Write a sequence for this structure.
């Protein structure tokens, strides 16, 4: 297999495969960064080019890393984030939160369900 045929690991960073600063803040659990991006007019439903993830997907996908993710979820939804958005593979924020396997994921899943996300 040539080097060009080998799969490459995605390293999340602003600008990488359409990842925005809002996506990165959600990914990394950066509440102040997330709030700043939303104040600056970032679209909470914009999807990246990697997996078709919106900010809520990144927030839920990285639930195992902890952080103020439930608070971030509420802020994103207050700014119009869609709780049932589907990624390229059909994953939703709820399905990703359920896969986290920790208490943060459980809390996110419960809050997403309360906000109307469907299993």
């Amino acid at each position: 297999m040539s080097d060009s045929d080998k799969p490459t690991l995605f390293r999340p960073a602003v600008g990488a495969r359409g990842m925005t600063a809002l996506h990165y803040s959600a990914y990394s659990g950066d509440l102040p960064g997330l709030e700043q991006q939303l104040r600056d007019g970032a679209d909470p439903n914009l999807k990246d080019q990697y997996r078709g993830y919106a900010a809520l997907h990144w927030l839920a996908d990285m639930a195992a890393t902890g952080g103020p993710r439930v608070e971030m979820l509420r802020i994103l939804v207050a700014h119009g984030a869609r709780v049932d958005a589907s990624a390229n593979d059909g994953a939703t924020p709820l399905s990703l939160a359920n896969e986290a396997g920790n208490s943060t994921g459980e809390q996110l899943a419960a809050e997403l369900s309360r906000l109307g996300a469907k299993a």
Notes: Helices lie at 21-28, 31-39, 55-61, 69-78, 93-99, 103-114. The chain has a mean pLDDT of 92. The domain at 14-114 is CATH 1.25.40.20 (Serine Threonine Protein Phosphatase 5, Tetratricopeptide repeat).
